[in-house]
Fold this sequence. Notes:
Elements: H1 23-32, E1 36-37, E2 50-57, E3 61-67, E4 73-75, E5 105-112
Antiparallel strand pairs: 1-5, 2-3, 2-5, 3-4
Amino acid sequence: xxxxxxxxxxxxxNGAMYADITCPDVLAGAVADALIxxxxxxxxxxxxxxxxxxxxxxxxxxxxxxxxxxxxxxHKPGGTPATKLDNSGNPIADPRTADRGxxxxxxxxxxxxxxxxxxx
Length: 120
């Protein structure tokens, strides 16, 4: 829900940008930006904030999925519009099992608390 008009990078705003695009490195940057690592979220929305999922195309790129209060997952691949469909054209019920293309590593669920995240 935060627009930076940049290609925001996990950890950049807080001096903890990842050294390599791996789950541990990108996760550490996201935690530095005040996201809450929630690996046991089990695809359930938190009472406060939004549930997001971090995935990685190892050593190449990372990507985020966001779960809406309506229970639907969405994501925004590159410069394309946001979508609720995975790479096979199916609705995203769970990003752990969705067709994520090259993003082979599911890292974790995280919670984004409104007004707490600092991105750059």
